[in-house]
Amino acid sequence: MRHLQRKNLLRPGLFFSLDWKRNRQTLASSVVRVEADQLVMSYRHQNVAGEWQDRECPVRLDWTACNYGGQRTWMICPASGCGRRVGVLYLGNTGNFACRHCCELVYDTQRETDGQRAMRRVNNIRKVLGWRLALLNGGGEKPRGMQWRTFRKLKSQHDAHLRLALNKMGERLGMASRKLVGLQKRLDKG
Predict the structure, then answer these.
(1) What is the residue extent of each domain of the chain?
(2) CB under 8 Å to 187, separation ≥6 — which residues?
């Protein structure tokens, strides 16, 4: 939305085209018609069967005042029951445009388990300290030029996250081990 506003493309009566690509492959192409209070996107979308379908999606617009003058344009999520004011719409798996909440898009870190998060934090601290990455590589020395207080703080955080990561890994291995024992018992009976 900011890009369209900066390029002055949100004037009623204008038409322009947009392409949505993933890995250099066009997923959808669209002609956008700007009206006074909405954008009307006419687009072609390739469904999962590989067939192209023609669609049209009206997207209402809203405006808010900016602190230093002017106004900011927002799109209202066109998904039924949503109505969120957003700056970006995504082309969902169904071929409809919606906000990231309606498309159920999340950041990778929102799907991490506690153990994965702890491992990521261990590696981030190891990068700062200039140590080799991976949990079992052991510690290293204080980097030259780093304050001892900073080093001790990072080392303490590193060790706490490492303990958590190893505990979670142990729990998962324990569960896997119990499942394998159960499977072995069933195979022995069979």
Answers:
(1) 2-98, 111-189
(2) none
